[in-house]
Write a sequence for this structure.
């Protein structure tokens, strides 16, 4: 099973001002998605959502094509939608629905049989700790619970290809960990594509990552492969507080973290060279360092 | 698909606004069926004082007084009625002065539906003015049905002076009108008008249920999830259309059944046999009795309602939020009535035919066109009687708007 993106691009015209140039939301993206968890990292407005909507077949690319096992997804049509589960960034639902009613509605849309529906909904509600609120209206639930309902609907058809756009927004730390574990378990022999700008969400579970900026994929690889590019570029130094402003305005370094120490000094983590700040020590890089470096 | 249809139907019926509109439709069907009875009045004199009774009691007395003359409207009855009028006018002078109320009730009122039609058909061919009761003769009454045809010819020459084709069509249509006419007391034109008004109200409530069906998805963002599912495109569009039509049809059948049963029970089912020519104008072009006319108006209303629902589904599929779709729905639904009432020229006559809601409302409505007006529209060399257009055009529009709805929904944000 594989999803292939071949030179996919999406351009938008500004309908209110035709004189403005066409906006390239996604520009010439080629990607080969194989089973495992994929992290799609990028700042807000980098084109992640547009790319994901095209991958889900909700939006047509301006150029290029997206294939599932070598066949264009537009040809596969509903057969393709049968194998995907999608949670958009904005989880929209009909306000009149309870959790159970909503999942029954979506399962009808996904073509599940009556026999399948009950078991599948029961199983997901238990797995996502939503069993107690199944008869509650979604609109009355907390942000985290709503998100979990969104995840439940995406998993209803036991999809081969799961696409989650910013799935952890609104979840508390405990819920995030549970969610990561659920995905790791789920991702065996399937493709899970998660877009986020919160790097730790994918750092530990992503088999591979793609980093997106201005509609383009800048880098792809495993977390290790990507992180290795930052070896020798991440440092930590302790500075007196009066020097902070000076280092913040230094164009040679990029501060990625600040920590106030008990003695009043400041511990800086930065991207740059060891000689930039005296007595700086090399640090093990993380995916976040790379992300911030590229950002 | 069946499961999806049931789920969608349940979803729409769970919506608070749908339940409110449904309840309003049922309550109004009872209220509007009953309302015309409250307008019925009967005044009589007792101990030198005028007493007016209202509602069902008044209706019963009126029916009782006119019932001896019920049934076939024969020329002989016409002559008898005219004789009663003329005899009493000779004794008491005109009806507007000191004409004794009780004499009017017992001698004049029982004949008034028949004699007023005779007076109508005896109108002057040039001016259209009706003669005085004393100017008509027994011979005129005995020739009533011949005069009906002549009257139509005169009327069409006045109304459609520049359109001989319309005059010919009207004459051909009138040839098919069944004569003699029949009259059964009780039926009130208010009741007929309320049927038209209620059809408009019902259509309005149905389109208000329909207006958010697609736009609500776009507004809530539910759309992206739905579109990424197996049946989330064309099938969902079909199912949404089907559920909107189901709700509208059930609302229509249920509410019109309530309306018809109540109003006909109040006024009397036998009144449905009255010829429409006796109640409205002797020259009306359709050979129907009131029951058949009620059914025809219902059919035209049903077609218009389905056309409006189809049109509003299309509007909803093209609007990004419910506020816009609801606002446009109200505007589109009211436009033909308001435009026709305020402008009233040839353009408005053509426009209301094109609008799916053109057959419902006030003076623009099918029920008015079929009873009060002699309106024809020209399309090049072709002339068509407007009421037929008010049925045919919406019928054509139904599949067109439904196709546009599916197309717009499927192509949205692609």
């Amino acid at each position: 099973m594989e999803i292939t993106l071949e030179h996919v691009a999406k351009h938008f015209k500004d309908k209110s001002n035709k004189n403005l140039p066409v906006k390239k939301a996604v520009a010439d993206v080629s990607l080969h998605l194989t089973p495992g968890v994929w992290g799609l990292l990028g700042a807000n407005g980098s084109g992640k959502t547009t790319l994901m909507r095209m991958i889900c077949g909700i939006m047509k690319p301006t150029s290029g094509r997206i294939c599932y096992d070598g066949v264009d997804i537009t040809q596969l049509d509903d057969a393709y939608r049968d194998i995907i589960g999608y949670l958009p960034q904005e989880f929209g639902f009909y306000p009149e629905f309870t959790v159970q009613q909503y999942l029954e509605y979506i399962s009808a849309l996904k073509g599940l049989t009556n026999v399948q529906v009950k078991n599948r909904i029961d199983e997901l509600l238990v797995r996502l700790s939503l069993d107690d609120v199944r008869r509650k209206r979604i609109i009355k639930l907390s942000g985290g619970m709503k998100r979990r309902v969104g995840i439940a609907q995406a998993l209803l058809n036991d999809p081969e290809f799961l696409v989650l756009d910013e799935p952890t927004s609104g979840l508390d730390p405990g819920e995030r960990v549970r969610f990561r574990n659920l995905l790791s378990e789920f991702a065996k022999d399937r493709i899970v594509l998660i877009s986020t700008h919160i790097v730790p969400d994918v750092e530990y579970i992503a088999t591979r990552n793609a980093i997106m900026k201005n509609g383009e994929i800048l880098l792809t690889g495993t977390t290790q492969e990507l992180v290795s590019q930052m070896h020798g570029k991440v440092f930590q130094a302790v500075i007196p507080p009066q020097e902070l402003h000076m280092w913040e305005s230094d164009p040679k370094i990029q501060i990625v973290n600040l920590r106030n120490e008990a003695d009043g000094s400041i511990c800086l983590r930065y991207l740059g060279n060891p000689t930039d700040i005296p007595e700086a020590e090399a640090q093990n890089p993380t995916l976040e360092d790379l992300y911030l470096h590229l950002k | 698909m069946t499961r999806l249809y049931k789920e969608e139907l349940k979803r729409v019926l769970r919506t608070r606004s749908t339940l409110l509109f449904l309840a309003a439709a049922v309550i109004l069907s009872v209220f509007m069926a009953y309302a015309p009875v409250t307008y019925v009045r009967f005044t009589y004199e007792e101990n030198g004082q005028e007493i007016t009774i209202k509602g069902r009691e008044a209706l019963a007395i009126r029916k009782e007084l006119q019932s001896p003359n019920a049934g076939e409207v024969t020329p002989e009855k016409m002559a008898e009625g005219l004789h009663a009028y003329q005899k009493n006018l000779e004794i008491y002078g005109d009806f507007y002065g000191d004409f004794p109320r009780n004499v009017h009730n017992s001698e004049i009122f029982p004949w008034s539906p028949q004699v007023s039609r005779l007076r109508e058909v005896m109108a002057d061919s040039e001016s259209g003015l009706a003669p005085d009761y004393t100017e008509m003769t027994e011979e005129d009454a005995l020739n009533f049905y011949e005069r009906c045809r002549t009257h139509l010819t005169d009327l069409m020459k006045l109304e459609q002076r520049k359109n001989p084709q319309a005059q010919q069509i009207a004459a051909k249509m009138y040839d098919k009108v069944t004569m003699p006419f029949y009259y059964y007391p009780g039926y009130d034109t208010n009741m007929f008008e309320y049927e038209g008004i209620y059809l408009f109200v019902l259509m309005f409530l149905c389109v208000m249920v329909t207006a958010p069906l697609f736009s609500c998805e776009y507004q809530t963002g539910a759309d992206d999830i739905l579109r990424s599912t197996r049946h989330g495109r064309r099938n969902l569009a079909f199912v949404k259309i089907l559920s909107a039509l189901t709700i509208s049809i059930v609302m229509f059948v249920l509410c019109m059944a309530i309306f018809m049963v109540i109003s006909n029970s109040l006024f009397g089912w036998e009144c449905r046999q009255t010829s429409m020519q006796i109640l409205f104008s002797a020259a009306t072009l359709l050979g129907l009795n009131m029951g058949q006319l009620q059914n025809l108006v219902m059919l035209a209303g049903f077609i218009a309602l389905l056309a409006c629902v189809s049109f509003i589904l299309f509007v909803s599929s093209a609007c990004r939020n419910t506020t816009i779709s609801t606002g446009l729905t109200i505007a589109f639904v009211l436009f033909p009535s308001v435009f026709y009432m305020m402008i009233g020229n040839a353009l408005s006559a053509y426009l209301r035919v094109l609008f799916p809601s053109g057959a419902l409302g006030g003076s623009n409505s099918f029920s008015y066109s079929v009873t009060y007006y002699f309106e024809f529209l020209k399309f090049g060399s072709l002339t068509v009687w407007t009421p037929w257009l008010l049925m045919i055009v919406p019928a054509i529009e139904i599949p067109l708007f439904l196709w546009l709805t599916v197309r717009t929904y499927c192509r949205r944000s692609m």
Summary: Chain B has two domains: 2-38+188-411, 41-163.
